[in-house]
Hints:
With 271 residues, the chain is of the alpha/beta class. Helix content is 44%, strand content 15%. Strand 2, helix 3 (60-67) and strand 3 (72-76) form a beta-alpha-beta unit. It starts with a helix and ends with a helix.
Amino acid sequence: MTTTRAATLGKFSTRQKFVVGNWKMYTNTLEASQLAGAIVAGMGIEDAVTVIVCPPFPYLALVGEILKNSCVLLGAQNLYPQNEGAFTGEVSPVMIRDLGCKYVILGHSERRHKLGELDAFINQKVLIALSEGLNVILCVGETLDQRKDNQTQKVVECQLTEGLIGVSPETLTHLSVAYEPVWAIGNQANHATAEQAQDAHAIIRHKFGQLFGEQAAQALIIQYGGSINPQNAAAFFSKQGVDGVLIGGDSLKADQFLAIVKAGINSSKIK
């Protein structure tokens, strides 16, 4: 995918920037409370960027209370594709919505590669989340071996296509995609460049257009997730077609997270 094509497919700059913090399996009660409070205080009433935090399940209610009346939205890191039932240890979309979640991350690479989740299972989650009124962040991305074998486009397009089977066009406004190259997540040896992210986002947007039409493709929010930090965030935000970032480690430090949010705000003002 060439940069020219990336620029063409990402030429519409009206999409609002997104900053999503994925706390993964970190924090305790005190840490979650302090982190959420610091983010809310640091954000103020800023609304130029959509900001979402996704704590571990045990702290959703706690963090949700802290986020009330703020501009920061609550998200969950996963769900099980049933509203209720004998599924010991699982959490339903109805439950996370009841706790105030507006967003849910689905298909994260750690769930794909460490927990063996397949595209068909992720698709079930996408469908039920959308049917319950949740906003879905669908993650796609290739491994290092797949990139070395020039399989990036094939892998990303397959994950996107299979993950969105049966999705109604009427629900597309509640869907965003996060490109997270597995080889760049928490990896100090391999970092994706902003240009590599832009090219991958163009692949995603083009495929989305084939699935749902060009208008839907140009409205689609595509985030980048792969070792984003305050030092490199501006470079990613500056690229056409990169509409936001999904942050892991640096979302656990309020000052780092807020610095990335500021980079998103600044890029919005420039464009």
